[in-house]
Amino acid sequence: MSDKPILPGAGPIEPVNLREALEKRYLEYALSTIMHRALPDVRDGLKPVHRRILYAMRELRLNPDSAYKKCAKIVGEVMGNFHPHGDQAIYDALVRLAQDFAVRYPLVDGQGNFGNIDGDNAAAMRYTESRMTEVAIALLDGI
């Protein structure tokens, strides 16, 4: 065996059909994205962003018997510490956890306009407040 490292471009060049290569690579990427990001985890039914929101709320001690906190504070905590993506995506996920018409058991107790079943959007995060529900506390006991 040779001690020389194999450098990129040093091996044989294989002719590849560009269309087939792109189709294969796109399919692999799409499946990876779906399996790791888009589908909820089978263990608790939560996506990573939902899990991070609940964890941040637990860290902020937003228990069902505590006072509500502004959603902007929660979103900032999640974005700053756990989920480095856009604040609107995090807020949309938080709003969904509070909508009793969107989930069977709401995990977030929201105060303010969190949207309605007719499709009206929630108010801006600076106007809404939230805390965890008893169901969220029970779910987090396993973490």
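Next protein, fold it too.
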Amino acid sequence: MIFPGRYWIRWKKTGEVVGLAVDPVPDRPGFRILINKGIRFDLTTQEQVEDWCEKTFAWACENPVSQEEYLAWWRTGTWPPEVSEREADKNRRKRERIAAQRRPRK
């Protein structure tokens, strides 16, 4: 399921954290997607929605941002500190989970 809103994702090509906007398509069913200020496309079939949701949105939905945070990134190209801190905290938790899995069990 796709939820309209604003998110951040890590761009695989560069490793950069970029914005992702998801909005309803005006006047018809579907979603309009904007990634990193330049990649625009519409998802208008159920198959497109399911495919994109599985490949991309499943990751993006873990990283919502407010409209204000998204607009700050849009205007300046950098995320506000609170978004950067969220990403750092998420990465720290991920490293801790991996380390815990590697510890020998008693």
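About the second fold: The chain has one domain: 5-102.
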